[in-house]
Protein 1
Amino acid sequence: MFISFEGIDGCGKGTQISYLEKYLDSIGKTYIVVREPGGTEIGETIREVLLHSKFAITGKAELLLFLASRAQLVHEKILPALKEGKVVIADRFIDSSVAYQGAGRKIGVEEVKKLNSFATENIKPDITFYIDIPVSAFYQRKPFADRIECEGTAFLETVRQAYLKMAHEEPNRIIVIDGSKNTEDVWKSILSHLSQVRDLI
Ligand code: TYD
């Protein structure tokens, strides 16, 4: 079972992932948690370049670095864990590139989807929780931004709309969760969706 979490920065993915970890512990299920960009030694090095480099980077170069990190993660961590029957929890995956680079950086949503398939050997999460918050909430929750988060309100609004569009197009995989509620209510919505696919866990 492969579960990913998506959303604009500050949507509360981290808290929900820790609730999911506790839940999986309680039912005795083994799992791994991976984060993007990063999750492998090479990926963490790429993460530094992507999020904290002072050098200018083009949209295409940025996309290819995210994809390089993802390709390594799939090969080194995700596929082996799935083969061993573990649950894989990903803090961001393919949909982040579609939303941030495809839509936000205007590289093209379809182009990025194709490149994602190439990088991931076509694997997709079984279920993706997109935690939706208004862009204004981001600034209240996350005062210290990295390079991508500094793009501003219009950029994040484009990213948010791209996520909502993807969720509309793939309703069986991408579940929209209202992230403006308190963290426990958000978790209840996630758990209720998970219980519908519990046999998969
Ligand atoms: P991170 O500090 O991990 O933020 P968060 O806690 O919000 O996940 O930073 C990841 C940043 O990289 C975030 O601004 C989203 C961006 N990103 C992309 O632009 N494209 C991608 O493919 C991925 C995985 C992340």
Note: The CA atoms of residues 10 and 138 lie 5 Å apart.
Protein 2
Amino acid sequence: MNESKTNINWYPGHMTAARRKMQEDIKLCDVVIELLDARIPGSSKNPDMDDLIGNKKRIFILNKADMADPQVTAKWVEYYSSKGIKVLTMDSRIRKQTLAVTNAVKEVCKDKIERDRRRGIAARPIKAMVAGIPNVGKSTFINSFVGKATAKTGNKPGVTRGNQWIRISKDINLLDTPGILWPKFEDQQIGLNLAYIGSINDNILELNDVTYNFIEYIKDNYCNILVERYMIKDVGDSNEIIAKIAELKKSIKKGGEPDIDKTCRLILDDFRSGKLGRVSLEQPLQ
Ligand code: G4P
């Protein structure tokens, strides 16, 4: 890892407020649907949630599964399932996934449904909170049920939205919540992983450092991408690779020097927009 400046730690004030609100709202819900990014299903999981959730039911959705390495995603599904958590994988841009989500919600809430039935209580819709880090796809997920107008999407991490209830079927109401991160990352790799996928505002990052570390990872795990996408013949030092990509992309300053800042942005954009193909950035612990 490039040791120099990569120290991603901060906590925007509005997220403290959002966390407090979430703590209150969880009390109203029967189940929490946590959207994780399928490329980083460990790093995108809010460690605070384990406490916040208490004994509420929980479902994980590995979203953007279309961008992740399917073999690695399968391992994550197995990993979380082995911990007794209901897990679905999803590309939220595809509509009509209502049935899979409805069935999962009903499955994890079956005790409550049965209890209500035994007590003769008229079926009350299940209340499900949708939670996840900025940019994980919460709005897209909710919109996939109800159409574009309802939940506003935005690709800027940290954009807060008002919490609102959305009815997705006669049995289920979803509560939309703003994306939150947590005050301190247990290890810097988590911060880097969140930076790679664009869930941390780029303006507070040393993007050259982030990109250097990204290339290091790709070199070790998806070397073929460098060869196929960027026509790198000798995969050597990561700084040299970035300079070669600058040449390829004609990202050159006036004096003829490679424009490294611009190239780093281009590389991250390529990854975030899926142009590098399906990449997973972490494996579950064995
Ligand atoms: P958020 O509410 O959690 O902050 O996330 P949001 O739904 O705004 O989604 C952030 C970006 O991720 C959007 O792209 C959205 O289209 C994309 N996205 C969401 N779910 C998926 C998925 O399952 N697969 C893929 N490939 N992309 C997904 P954008 O570029 O910001 O906006 P747009 O150009 O799609 O409008």
Note: The longest strand covers residues 31-37.
